[in-house]
Specification:
The chain is mainly beta and 410 residues long. The protein is 5% helix and 51% strand. Strand 16 and strand 17 form a beta hairpin. It is globular.
């Protein structure tokens, strides 16, 4: 009996370490914590388990707009029904991913706008209100290549002001494209871009556009250095008439545009910049300006007959329209939290076949921006446009708008 007791006790003692060993915790898998990526500036983090850096940011904008127009020839007695005020709220989502590769930078970028308007400024009886979703940017960059939706490689200067109820007298277009940029060094580069022609059509008076046959071809030569930047640019655009079974369809024509701009950082004030840009177009009106405001299109939104790429003449041929613009702006910081900006522009449009639509636009814009804390800006902006109709069928007139904006970027 004593022998059995001793053997049982010994077995129990020997079993204890095995039991304890079975209960010991298993070593956890290593956790790949999110790490800051400082290769591309603030706000980037490594995606866990990869060498790709990503930044997800946002913005909220609240805005109140007012405006009046003397260009009532399109509306006659209905001017009383026009909206002269508008509330707008807009949310932004920015997603930027970047990876350094042996071929250069690999980048994918998305920018989404979600907007809600109480009504359309200069619309009728509350028209134009509601929500909208815009894919503002969506592109891939790989080395010197760019594919997707982004700013046209023809565009250069953007106005330093918020005033944008009607578009400034310069080319400002986002569209689908495929481009290659070659850097020579010392800030010099050149780009060749194949871009969607649909976004640059301004219609053919008396006939209309047909289907899209060829994309636009855009090229630029650019310099970016410490003093500022400058660019020369050009574009080729096909003017392709629609088929019409009732008559001879006009032959297509080739429109074109050339332009140049310069932006200089001034040394006498903090953040002071001045820019100037000019362009001449023939059969490519949308490369002169992103605005369609003309004597027969009062308020500057797309559509109407602010300007045509071509006009059908009496012999059934297309006469390409001409347009030229010059614009400039100046901005500077009064203090670390207060900045001012002024801008102006001029547009001259003409076509000898139908001079009733010939016009000139004169623009002036200004804004004050206060930034009480980092990431928050607010302030007012105003803009004024005078439309000089060259033909007596339409009256000359002016448009003015004002807005107050509050914007938080995070």
């Amino acid at each position: 009996m004593l022998k059995r007791i001793l053997l049982g006790a010994a077995g129990g003692i020997l079993a204890v370490p095995a039991a304890f060993a079975a209960d010991l915790p298993v070593a956890p898998e290593p956790i790949d914590y999110v790490r800051v990526c400082d290769a591309f500036g603030a706000g980037f983090y490594y995606i866990p388990g990869t060498d790709t850096c990503i930044s997800v940011r946002g913005r909220v904008r609240a805005e109140y707009r007012i405006g009046e127009s003397e260009l009532a020839q399109n509306y006659g007695a209905h001017w009383r029904d026009m909206n002269s005020s508008q509330f707008r709220s807009r949310g932004y989502i920015y997603m930027d991913s970047r990876t350094n590769t042996e071929f250069g930078l690999l980048r994918a970028y998305n920018e989404i706008w979600i907007t809600y308007d109480s009504s359309g400024l200069f619309g009728f009886n509350g028209d134009g209100g509601g929500s909208s979703l815009s894919l503002w940017n969506s592109f891939v960059q790989f080395g010197g290549f760019t594919f997707g939706r982004t700013q046209s490689f023809y565009d250069f200067v953007s106005y330093p002001t918020w005033a944008s109820v009607f578009t400034p007298q310069l080319s400002d277009q986002r569209q689908n494209l495929a481009a290659y940029t070659f850097a020579f060094g010392n800030g010099f580069s050149t780009s060749l871009s194949v871009e969607s022609a649909d976004d640059r059509r301004s219609d053919i008076d008396g006939w209309g556009y047909g289907g899209t046959k060829y994309p636009d071809l855009v090229a630029n030569l650019r310099i970016d250095q410490g003093w500022g930047s400058a660019q020369l640019m050009g574009a080729v655009h096909q003017v392709w008439p629609a088929y019409n079974s009732t008559g001879a369809t006009p032959d297509s024509e080739i429109g074109w545009a050339v332009g140049g701009g310069v932006k200089v950082n001034l040394p006498f004030a903090a953040g002071a910049t001045v820019n100037l840009q000019g362009a001449y177009t023939k059969g490519a009106y949308a490369y002169a300006t992103s605005s369609s405001t003309g004597p027969g299109n009062a308020f500057g939104y797309s559509g109407g007959n602010g300007g045509y790429d071509a006009v059908l003449d009496a012999s059934g041929d297309l006469e390409l329209s001409e347009a030229w613009t010059v614009s400039g702006g100046f901005g500077f910081a009064v203090s670390p939290s207060l900045t001012l900006a002024l801008a102006g522009g001029y547009l001259d449009y003409s076509n000898d076949v139908n001079p009733v639509n010939d016009f000139k636009n004169y623009d002036a814009q200004g804004q004050i921006v206060w930034s009480p804390v980092e990431g928050l800006i607010m302030g007012p902006a105003v803009e004024y446009r005078y439309v000089d109709a060259d033909d007596s069928v339409y009256e000359d007139g002016s448009i003015w708008t004002g807005l107050f904006r509050v914007q938080r970027t995070f």
